[in-house]
Amino acid sequence: MPYGLTLIQSQLFARIPYPTSDFTGQTVIVTGSNTGLGLEAARHLVRLGAKVVLGVRTLSKGEAAAADIVRTCDTSADRVAVWQLNMSDHDSIKAFAERASTLDRLDAVILNAGVLSMKWSEIGGVESHIAVNVIGTVLLELLLLPTLQRSAKTTGQPGRMTVVGSDLMYVAQPEDLQTEGPVLEKLNTKGEIDIGSYYRLSKLLVFYANRRIADEHPVSNQSNVIMTVVTPGACVSDIFRDDMALAQRVGMAIGMKLLARTTEVGGRTLVNAIKPKMDPGAHGKFVMDCIVTV
Known about the structure:
Elements: H1 3-13, E1 27-31, H2 36-47, E2 51-56, H3 59-73, E3 80-84, H4 90-100, E4 108-111, E5 122-123, E6 126-127, H5 128-155, E7 159-164, H6 183-187, H7 198-216, E8 225-231, H8 246-259, H9 263-272, E9 286-288, E10 291-292
Parallel strand pairs: 1-2, 1-4, 2-3, 4-7, 7-8, 8-9
Antiparallel strand pairs: 5-6, 9-10
């Protein structure tokens, strides 16, 4: 089916179930969770009984988000922890993963933090979408995996980890990655690829990476962790923060008004991807509209 029809069917006709899974006693990490989809996913998880760790760049914003969750879920403050995490800083990622390794248990992870921009920028000499959405995300994924594996052995329950991707990967152009030299060298050369292509390319690359990691760590007694990539679909969110021309802003506003899911509904998709009874057959797969696909 052409992507445009897939998008319309998904956004207007797919029914995203309200999460009802029991997370009582479980500990879940949600990154990028002081606002938007991450915040709403964390709120659902606390409502369902989990203890949630919010991985956030700015602690003051994380504390405000935690207070909001505690208030709206009418729960105790010890159910929500706030940890500092800067996905553009490898030292911060390593420190976060090391801290996670000290948890009594870690049952699930939602890697939601990411960037979306229409302006060229670099982080340590690497284009920002690639630095955060791919390299930083994969680094954190690999560093958290041993903790999830160890916890699964202790609890006897499968661990779950999902990376928030995008169905826009379906319209990424793989030929943009074709080069005679290293792919990263091409991606990090300003003007070599249209800047508007980077977000969807980053989501395609993180899907490829997640599938490779899943292949190397099949669900087994040694690694009882189910790894997926999930798309929340087009949702009301503040991920796109760039200033835009008036026509572009109006066009986006109309499109979002017609098609976008609410942030709360988008948060449901993230929770579904780490539900306790996640099918092991989802390992290494892409989850769209709460359905396991490719």
